[in-house]
Every structure is written in structure tokens, then in C-alpha cells.
């Protein structure tokens, strides 16, 4: 097994475990404040130190992991849920007007700077984690549609697909029963990459105040709040940023490792 | 070639048209009536109605869109609800920060990426290549706004070499460039990481070609072959990525401008969102999206000019 896969799985796994454990246990209450102990550096009592309200940063980071992971995961779900069927339909009707309409629609969404539109969406519908999910998810749709179509197209030329057609199966059934299982690896790898991009996007939106709102902790918002205190207590900004960085790095390495392990010929998109 | 250009122009116009509709509708959905915002919640109903009529808010949606689009096409983006000044002027002012920032960031990204990509490709499969590529993974995973904060902490707060934020203005060019340097580095590093990976793999693909073997057989050194033959041919995918990156940098500067309190287009958008100055939000986003779509269009044309195979499609 390649080292990228192992290191990636460890880093990404840490964030997922931290988020999962936070549902049953966190070192300190994150809603209570302890002002006399504010901006304390990391110590035995508070491994990651305390923030400007004296709250334990480790606890905040653990609960914040939930927000980042949930937003990115659901956004990938939206992208896959709409993008994969669209890509399968386009491939099944390759060269036809349905394919043309789907792919040109994709090109249109691609032409938009995703961050600007995500900001506009969250500004229009109000800043919240749900709107951040929608904004990030919409831009995942064309990525999955394109990757699915690209992966499915060559499969449609294979003999066993012809055999399935002769056996009387329609395009939809062939897409689901024969094409989809073949491109599952490709989708898993692309899903990992989009997951990491989703975490970065969520952090960016939360940082500018358009993601998860108080009192829901999120890594991006922790960074925004830390900005004022960064000179007094650098750890307040360093730790949440490090969490984003290591999780994204882990997912990227995991994506690369999975690609090599599953099929080195896979063509994934890096947007 | 003409057919290719015509198709690209058609898709450019379509993209711009769809962008204008999407932006118009999204801003229409923003809760809160600009007239109520301008007059306050205690305003008299008839005053409110008069202002709504004056702003054209009482017109049906398609009419409002047509009026807005007509005005936009003639270069009139209206007046800011908050500052009562023409939005076109405000955006042009802010572009003087955002545009040089994106150009500087792209230049830095290229300056970093080319030597790194060339170095890694020339040592492909060796420890040096693996190490450099590992480092680019770090660059890609860095959230640029966090990296920006770390840069401020090191170069502005601790070393005091560069300003932590704000913009000096172009009447002091050196100070202005100094205030854009850290934001440009923060924007450039992740892009440099991506670009160097693209350059490396494009170079490696090219290095497998027969004409490279011929060049080596002629007696050229590995470095000479790489620079004179491989690099030139590997540039095509690299140019495409650079075009996409410039668009990304223009749009991506939105968050970085907030870290450094730079008076650019991104900061204008956020200020306008908090002030509910919808006309500014609408216009600034439209300008940004149009700029990105235009850059993509220009890159497509440049790409076709460089690679004749594309024109034939």
C-alpha cells in the first residue's frame, strides 16, 4: 500500500474520529465562558489552549470538525446525486441533443466563479450552514456530471453493453446495472477530492461570515474570530487553520492514493 | 478558425446572458426592500411608495431586468443606495486594487511554478521529484486566508518588513506594491503548487515523444532538450490552467482582501452585503463574473491560436 494512502487515511480519519467522538464527549463545555482563563497557550489542562472567551480550543475544534465534514459531505452528496445521473444520461445519449444540452449547461455553470456565486447565494438567502451546503453543492454537480460522462462513454462501446442491448435492456437499466459499477472507483476518487475542496470552501465561507452561524463552531469562523487576537495569542489562529490544512491534505493524499490503488488510469478532475 | 471563433463568441454571449439573469434574480431574492432600507422602518407609506416608484421597484420583474440590463450595457450601473455615488466609479476605483493584485499573484505563481515544475520533471521518479511533489501537496491544501494570517504574523507583526493591511494608494507606487505583496503571495502559493504539478506532468508527457529522443540523439543535454523542445510543447495545457487561475485569482481575492483590509472589489461586495446596498452587490458581482467569463473566452482563443488541432474541431 502506498504511503500517500496510509498518511491520507490517518489525517482524514483523525478529523472524522474527532467529529464522531464530539457527539458523545468533549473535554470542556463549549457554550460556557471562562474569561479569567482567556487566550491561554496550550497546556496540560487545555491541550490546544483557550480562546478569547476562555473556551477550550480542543473542544471547539472537535465540534467544529462536525460542521466542516457535514457541509462538505452533503455538498458532495448533492453533486453526486444530481451530477452522476446527468452524466449517465449524457453518456447514454452521447452525441444527441440531450447530451448537448446537459454538457452545455455544465459548461455554463463552470464558467461562473464558484466562490462569487456561493457568496451571492448565501448573501441572498441568509448566511447559514445549509445555504453554504447548497452553494458548494451546486458547483459539485457539473464536476460529477463531466467525470461520469467521461468515464461512461468508453464503456458504452464495449461488447457486453451491446450484448445487454440485444438482450432487450433499455439505456437506463444498462446505465445503472452495467455502466455505474464500472465507474464507481472513479466516482469514489472524485468524491474524495470534492470533499477536500468542500472543506476549504466551507472554511472560506464561514471565515467571511457566510457559513455556519454562532453558536455552531466551525473552523472557518474560529479563524475569523481569532484574527483580532492573532498577535496576542497566535495559537488561536494557528490551530483551527492547521485542522483545515491537515484534513484537506489528508483527503487529497487519500484521493491520490485511492486513485493509484484502484486504477492508475483513472482520469479525475482537479478544479 | 472563423467557425471556432463564432462558436466561442456565441457561447460567450450566452454565458454572459445567463450570468446576468442569475445575478439579477439572486439579488431580487435578497430579503429586505432597498426603499425600506434607505428610509428606515418608520417611513410613511406614501413616501415609501414614492421612493419605490422612483427606483423603479414597483415595475414587474422582467421590465426591471430589461431596464437594468439596458443601463448596464450603456455603462450605467446606477447609484449606490448608501453612498449616493455612481456604482461604475466605485467599481473602477476598487478595480485599481483587485486587478493589480490578481496580476501580481499570477506573476508570482508563474515565477515559482516554472522552476519547480522543470526541476521535478527533469528528475522524475527520483527522491528530489517526490519531495518537490510532496511539497506541492502542502501548497494545494493550504487555505489561502489562513496562510495570509500566518504571513501577517511573520512578516508584518514579528519582522515588521511589510504592512499588515490597508492600501497606500497608487500615488505612492512603492508603498502600494508593498501593501499588495503579502496578499499576492498568499494567493499565489496554492496556485503555484497546482501550476507546477500541471507543468511537471505536461513536461513528462512531452518527454516521452520521439522528437525529444531525436533531440537527445543529436547531442543536446537533458536540460537543453527540456528547455528548448519539451517546455515549448508542454506550454499549451499550462496556458489553459493559467487562464483559469487568473479568473480564480480575481474571484479568490474576495476573501484575501478581507484579511488585509484591502479596498478592492471583494471588500466592496462584503461591505455592500452588510449595508444591504443591493445595487452595488449586483453590479460588483456582475463585473467580476463578466471578467472571469471574458478571461476564459480569451484563453480559449489563445489556446486555438497556439494549437491548430483545436480549430479543426
Automatic annotation (TrEMBL), chain A:
Domain ABC transmembrane type-1: 65-255
The name this protein goes by in its record: ABC transporter permease
Domain of life: Bacteria
Family: Belongs to the binding-protein-dependent transport system permease family.
Segments passing through the bilayer: 69-93, 105-126, 132-158, 179-201, 232-255
The UniProt record lists the keyword GTP-binding: no
Xref: CDD domains: TM_PBP2 (cd06261)
Chief location bin: membrane
GO CC, any one term: plasma membrane
Keyword Transmembrane attributed: yes
GO biological process: transmembrane transport
Source species: Paracoccus aurantiacus
UniProtKB/TrEMBL annotation, chain B:
GO molecular function: dipeptide transmembrane transporter activity
Matches recorded under InterPro entries: BPD_transp_1_N, MetI-like, MetI-like_sf
UniProt keyword Electron transport, yes or no: no
Keyword Calcium: no
Membrane-related topology note: Multi-pass membrane protein
Localisation per UniProt entry: Cell membrane
PROSITE patterns assigned: ABC_TM1 (PS50928)
Pfam families referenced in this protein's UniProt entry, alphabetically: BPD_transp_1, BPD_transp_1_N
CDD domains: TM_PBP2 (cd06261)
UniProt keyword annotations, A-Z: Cell membrane, Membrane, Transmembrane, Transmembrane helix, Transport
Predominant place of localization: membrane
Domain ABC transmembrane type-1: residue ranges: 95-299
Gene Ontology CC terms: plasma membrane
Transmembrane segments: 12-30, 99-121, 142-162, 174-195, 234-256, 284-306
Family: Belongs to the binding-protein-dependent transport system permease family.
UniProt-recorded name of the protein: ABC transporter permease
The organism of origin for this protein: Paracoccus aurantiacus
